[in-house]
Amino acid sequence: MRFDILTIFPRTFESYLNESIIKRAHKKKLIKIKIHDIRKFSKDKHKKVDDVPYGGGAGMVMTPQPLHDAIKYARRYNKGPVIFLTPDGNTFTQIKAEKMAKKSGMIFICGRYEGIDQRIRDTLIDEEISIGNYVLTGGELPAMVLLDSISRLIPGVLGKEQSHEQDSFSKALDRKKEYPHYTRPAEFKGMKVPKVLVSGHHKNIAAWRKSKLK
Ligand SMILES: C[S@@+](CC[C@H](N)C(=O)[O-])C[C@H]1O[C@@H](n2cnc3c(N)ncnc32)[C@H](O)[C@@H]1O
Q1: What DSSP state is assigned to residue 116?
Q2: Fewer beta carbons within 10 angstroms: which end of the chain, N or C?
Q3: What Cα–Cα distance (Å) separates residue 77 from each residue in 73, 85, 102?
Q4: What's the gap between Cα 49 and its chain centre?
Q5: Domains of the chain and any CATH numbers
Q6: Per-residue pLDDT of the chain (214 residues; tens, 9 = 90+)
Q7: Is the pTM of this model over 0.90?
């Protein structure tokens, strides 16, 4: 799976992509991540990527030219859908992540300021996705949220000790929220682990866990 991410803050991805599971998946070539600095595509002599909104009002809008050229460039290497992260997009869900994990690639556009020029949205974006009903300062965190939740569903990305098949919202859990987990010690500050979990009775444990799904 190839992810091309278009942003004006490429360094915001560095620490996250260089840690743990995502780093390992990249190293194992299960995912490929390319971060593109939209500013580099600007034909403005000061490498400007934003301008005042037509019609007036507060805030700036990302100009179409650098975005257009950056998307066309990424498209040469990535045939997957072009996705704009935006609060007014379709809300991201586990089912959506599962569908996206089957694709060969995708291109994420991270907005800033008031967002991007509508003409880019109308012509070059295949899908608009929101990570929830709240507003962040930029699309970088939403892009990382999608990248993480999609990557962990790709076969081989999670180690043997981890699995996504029994996670909250999975098909196996009827799309419900997961049951509680306990680990050693059996008693902690007077709180005991539910008896059924230490009984060794697999059928009863499965029934208890099912009863705790929310
Ligand atoms: C300050 S926001 C723009 C908000 C926009 N003016 C609005 O009211 O919908 C700047 C950028 O952050 C990203 N962003 C903010 N909240 C987001 C969310 N909930 N989901 C996805 N992207 C988001 C988008 O890329 C957006 O273009």
Answers
A1: B
A2: C
A3: 8, 20, 18
A4: 24
A5: 2-151 (3.40.1280.10)
A6: 999 999 999 999 999 998 888 999 999 999 999 999 999 999 999 999 999 999 999 999 999 999 999 999 999 999 999 999 999 999 999 999 999 999 999 999 999 999 999 999 999 999 999 999 999 999 999 999 999 999 999 999 998 767 898 899 999 999 999 999 999 999 999 999 999 999 999 999 999 999 999 9
A7: yes
